[in-house]
Design a protein that fits this description.
Blueprint: H1 15-29, E1 37-38, H2 40-47, H3 51-63, E2 67-68, E3 75-77, H4 82-106, H5 109-121, H6 128-145, H7 149-172, H8 177-193, H9 197-216
Antiparallel strand pairs: 1-3, 2-3
Helix pairs in contact: 1-3, 2-3, 4-6, 4-7, 4-9, 5-6, 5-8, 6-7, 6-8, 7-9, 8-9
Length: 222
């Protein structure tokens, strides 16, 4: 009997995925900053794997926007240009505005409490990289509480790039960062709990704008 048209067996999660996880984690931990070179030979030696899975992992990370693979050149951690930042911010803003509106209209008090807990965790962040993770987790909670599956998928598509953007932001300065970010997120939670759509949208926009302005150099660090 011909197998034409039938579904082929699914591939199990492979070594390349595990390698990608480890490289991604190193980027998010700050071990590889934007612009850092990622050489296949060195990575394969450090992780005790062949170059094939490393090469495949780097291609996967490139599809996430975390690295840039150039022909006959070393792969580098993505450095965001001003245009990259503008595009990412405009798309994130559109997605987040919809998510905030959905949360205010549909989220339960329990959902809002879950969001608030992610903001509370920020108070215990011990360094800027941990704070970035907490920031991403907060916005994960916003999209989860929105109850809009396709919107959550769209956020997942840019999530790693937003994380990279925030790493770029703390790479410029961390002065006042550990104090400012928890305070801003407490204000965001309060607006959501008051079910005040206009106030919430304005606060979320201001929250995004400060980081963008800092990265593109239109504000004074601090």
């Amino acid at each position: 009997m011909s197998n034409q048209g039938k579904v082929v067996p699914a591939r199990r999660r492979g070594l390349a995925d595990e390698v990608a996880d480890r490289i991604r984690e190193a980027i998010f931990n700050g071990a590889y900053a934007p612009g850092a070179q990622l050489r296949e030979v060195e990575l394969s030696g450090e992780m005790d794997v062949s170059r094939g899975p490393v090469r495949e992992a780097l291609r996967l990370l490139e599809s996430e926007g975390l690295v840039h693979c150039a022909w006959h050149r070393a792969t580098t951690v993505t450095t965001l240009s001003a245009e990259d930042v503008a595009e990412l911010d405009s798309l994130r803003g559109a997605l987040e505005d919809l998510a905030v509106a959905q949360v205010i209209a549909r989220a339960s008090d329990e959902d809002l409490s879950s969001i608030a807990k992610t903001a509370d965790i920020m108070e215990r962040a011990v360094d800027a990289h941990e704070m970035v993770r907490c920031d991403i987790a907060f916005h994960d909670a916003i999209f989860a509480a929105a109850g809009h599956h396709r919107l959550a998928d769209a956020w997942d598509g840019i999530r790693c790039q937003v994380h990279l953007f925030l790493l770029t932001r703390i790479g410029l300065t961390t002065e006042g960062y550990l104090d400012r970010i928890p305070r801003e997120h407490r204000e965001l939670v309060a607006a959501l709990r008051h079910r005040d759509t206009n106030a919430a949208l304005e606060l979320f926009a201001a929250h995004r704008r400060h980081a963008v302005d800092l990265v593109v150099g239109t504000t004074t660090p601090g």
